[in-house]
Design brief:
The complex is a heterodimer of chains A (174) and B (291).
Chain A (H helix, E strand, L loop, with lengths): L1 H19 L13 H12 L2 H18 L6 H16 L8 H26 L7 H35 L11
Helix pairs in contact in A: 1-3, 2-3, 2-4, 2-6, 3-4, 4-5, 5-6
Chain B lengths: L1 H33 L5 H33 L4 H36 L2 H4 L3 E9 L7 E4 L12 E4 L2 E9 L4 E5 L6 E6 L5 E6 L5 E7 L9 E4 L11 E9 L6 E8 L8 E5 L7 H11 L1
The chains are: A mainly alpha (174), B alpha+beta (291).
Chain lengths: 174, 291
């Protein structure tokens, strides 16, 4: 329970950083998705029920503070959480490149999923959105993937310090 | 039989919870699409819980940025000072011209009885957060329903139009920026009075939709609000045309514009609370009452 609440507070802290700190950085175009990295970390280290609920709540928060009129992230984040759970013991995710690649692919998958959902839910075609997928989203997904090993490592250390669980986290199994 | 059922549930409990959670997310999405009441309460509650943290974080970031801007980045101060003096001289000249124009404008306003339309009541608000996702364009402000802010109200700044209120909670609101792909504002090109719809294109850019090919529009033309949408007063600056393309087929031409407000550096905004024309919802209510 303690772990669940701490992770929840950490998620709120990350969304705060994502809405305040990242937009104030000098390079406006590059905005990595810290919350996505955190959700994927949860997918690799958390049990399915409590982790799924956390991913759902974090997605809900994303929707709340974004200009998105639908609950897109509320659906996409738990889905990504469970897909990452599926891959957890099937791929080697200990090295930095593999972690980066893993997060980059998931960021792209989420982008495509959101694009499909927006296309399905909007009554009018959103042609303006397609160029932004290539211009902004690809770059941001790449940066998100790039910083993910550092954050994964920080999450692992934090988790070890707080709960003394050495084998918790993504290095549990290859 | 009961015991067997219990073991079956234990065996499939995790997949059941996963399926239920994802189904709930889908139902939630469908509720949002239909804009049903009921989820608004949780939205407002969560916004109110998280906004103080956002506010504190913004304050810390602004303080740190202010320190760097004031003490660390003073390298080009002399050059900037000379430039600013020149700019002041230019502005003083423009100010005199502006005063003359304002007097003329005032007379015309009285003459046409449009005074109420041009000076609606506004609420000043501070931007406390930006959109967490990379391709949606919105900001969170520190004024909400208790301050008189309602969904659909226009948000402006001294430089021009910014967007419309998308979500509200008692003390905070989310503003959909004009650069968001979901945003559309009725507008006119100031020089030629050509009508068009300004749609968001992300990345501090917009495009003009339904601009007739026959209309004379060039790069640098100013685009202002037409006042027909009901939320924005007429004549508010939206932006400057940056690209015109007539090469395609059809009766419309393509034009892009850069907003007059730098939406990536928003700090303070104004919410127009008094609409010059009744909003769509209010119109509906009035019709119902009349019946």
């Amino acid at each position: 329970m303690k772990r669940f609440i701490l992770s929840l507070l950490l998620g709120i802290l990350f969304i705060t950083l994502q809405t305040t700190l990242l937009p104030s950085l000098p390079i406006q175009r590059i905005r990595p998705d810290i919350l996505l990295i955190f959700t994927l970390y949860l997918g690799l280290s958390y049990p399915p029920i409590s982790g799924g609920l956390l991913a759902f709540f974090l997605g809900y928060l994303m929707d709340l503070f974004s200009g998105n009129p639908f609950g897109l992230y509320t659906f996409s984040r738990p889905l990504l959480f469970y897909i990452s759970q599926f891959f957890k013991n099937r791929f080697y995710l200990e090295s930095f490149p593999s972690q980066s690649f893993f997060v980059f692919i998931f960021a792209l998958v989420e982008g495509l999923l959101i694009l499909i959902l927006l296309r399905a839910l909007n009554p009018i075609p959103l042609r303006n959105l397609y160029p932004s997928f290539l211009e902004t989203f690809l770059l941001n997904s790449f940066v998100t993937g790039l910083i993910s090993p550092v954050l994964f490592s920080l999450f692992n250390r934090g988790s070890f310090l707080l709960f003394n669980q050495h084998k918790m986290g993504i290095k549990e199994k290859g | 039989m009961r015991i067997r059922g219990f073991f079956l549930f234990r065996r499939y409990s995790i997949p059941t919870v996963i399926v239920l959670l994802l189904l709930f997310a889908l139902v939630f999405m469908s509720l949002r699409v239909r804009q049903r009441k009921g989820i608004d309460f949780f939205d407002a509650l969560l916004i109110e819980l998280c906004s103080p943290i956002q506010k504190a974080s913004t304050l810390v970031i602004k303080t740190v940025q202010g320190f760097f801007n004031q003490y660390v980045f003073l390298v080009h101060l002399q050059k900037e000072n000379t430039m600013l003096k020149q700019r002041i001289a230019e502005l003083q000249r423009e100010s005199h011209q502006g005063k003359e124009m304002a007097l003329a404008h005032e007379r015309l306003q009285k003459l046409l009885q449009f005074r109420d339309k041009i000076s609606p009541s506004v609420i000043a608000a501070e931007v406390i957060g930006q959109d967490p996702s990379s391709w949606l364009m919105s900001v969170t402000i520190n004024k909400g329903e208790k301050d008189g802010v309602r969904k659909g109200m226009a948000v402006i700044s001294a430089e021009g139009a910014i967007g419309q209120i998308l979500k509200t909670s008692p003390y905070h609101s989310v503003v959909l920026l004009i650069t968001d792909y979901n945003s559309a504002i009725d507008s006119i090109v100031q020089r030629t009075r050509a009508k068009a719809i300004v749609e968001g294109k992300g990345e501090n850019r917009c495009q003009l939709k339904y601009l007739l090919r026959a209309e004379d529009v060039v790069v640098g033309d100013l685009v202002v609000t037409s006042g027909l949408s009901g939320n924005f007063t007429k004549g508010l600056m939206i932006g400057r045309i940056s690209k015109v393309d007539k090469r395609g087929h059809g009766i419309f031409q393509y034009a892009e514009l850069v907003p007059s407000v730098d939406l990536t550096k928003l700090e303070e905004v104004l919410v127009i609370t008094e609409s010059p024309m009744p909003l769509q919802e209010e119109k509906g209510k009035k019709v119902k009452k009349a019946k």
